[in-house]
Amino acid sequence: MNKIKPKIDLILNPLFAQVGFLSIILLTELPVITEYINPLIKLFILWSLAVSLYHIKPILKLIKKDRLILAITIFACLYLLAAVINYQSNFRSNIIEFLLFSSIIGPSLASVTRLKKPQQIFKNIFTINTVAVTIITFVSVAALVAFSVNFGLKLVDLDGFSDIVVGFTSGRLTGFFRNASYASAAIGLFMSLYNLLFLKYYPKSYAKPTIYRLRALFWVGLVANLVHVLLQNSNAIDIALSVAAGFLFMFVYRQKLYKASPKRKSLSFSNTAKLIVATVLVIAVSPLIISKASQSTVLFRNLILKSTAADISDKSNIDSGVERAENSAHRDVSNGRIDLAISGLEDFKQKPIFGHSTVPAEGYVIIDDIKEKVLHHHNLLIHSLYAVGLVGTLAFALVGIRLVIKMFDYLFTRRPKKVSDYMLVLALSTFLIFSVVNNMGDLSIIFVTKSLGVVFWYYVIYLNLFLGENKHA
Questions:
Q1: Which of 156, 159, 277, 442 lies 20 to 30 Å from 375 when distance is taken between CA atoms?
Q2: Among 352, 368, 372, 181, which residue's Cα sits nearest to residue 360?
């Protein structure tokens, strides 16, 4: 038995399960191999559940001790309850979504029960990020190169994703990631930033030759994914990046102001005014810069889409892409999201307590008796009310409120004991802010399992551990 246990510990290592699950979700977002990868998801769900059960005792202790983890557990139970109550409406799909969510949370809780020191927490995040950045950056670079070499190179022809052109799908630069996952490059961007900071503040974690190679990877990831994000022409991404940029700038600049006045216990009136004005300017100017980068693609988007249309048998997607490009300056910026929100609130009134569960009964959101090919309401709050009702949404909100209080309590520390830890927490917090703002116009951190949501919950649980153990760091 003593010989077998180390092998079991290795197979059921929570960090391995986290890395594996995120990798498989990222790979399912590649249309070229989606049909081959999807069957493997069931194996990863079973692996994640086995990891959770193997570490169930420390997980239960953590739930009893930590209020935020308790709130996540209550929300998960309400998530399951909504699926059971609505068993006649896509029960199988709803249970699968619940199991996918459990596959994110379980190994994450198991992982944090094994960690105590801040460097261990940050290194676990670094390991997860490194694998994800490698996948995302390879995809981004390959797509950008292919796009630059041959605008009209056809990538793949799959049901539901026919006529995907390298770089452009319906007029947007999406690379090899499918149309439904614009945030994948943004994940690579934020992960690259975090990992560069980690190597800066913890240079002794790896040998020098390894650090040089890793830095090269993360700088390529930072630049390639930034270019990719700027050319995506997604309103939700643009707004979320602008808010995230303002958030990051505010706390970096604030710490610099404190450093410039080491004897002062608080910022002077003039420095406070500088901080407010500068932050507002960053938030106001950054969307203009980002949107200009996105809109610049309109100049050659028509040429690209029209030039590829002659080589594609079914031109419907391309035609819609051309139309989208030609009318991008005049279209409703909500892209139908207002109608989706109204529809979601009307459905919420029918089952306000525990909701309808996450997947609509008909398989699609219904707007004015027309079945739209949309699986959710493109808004975190609206779909939460629809899926788990008022009770589940309050539990979900409690998780967010609890974390925000911890996060801001730490970030508003005047002079942190360790600048390294402060900057890494700030990088993680910036990603969480970006994710939530982005999900005001999309849905990817809950109810629909995407890579953004997997990373979001990993960071929430790791950050919660650090903030709980380092209240006055």
A1: 156
A2: 372
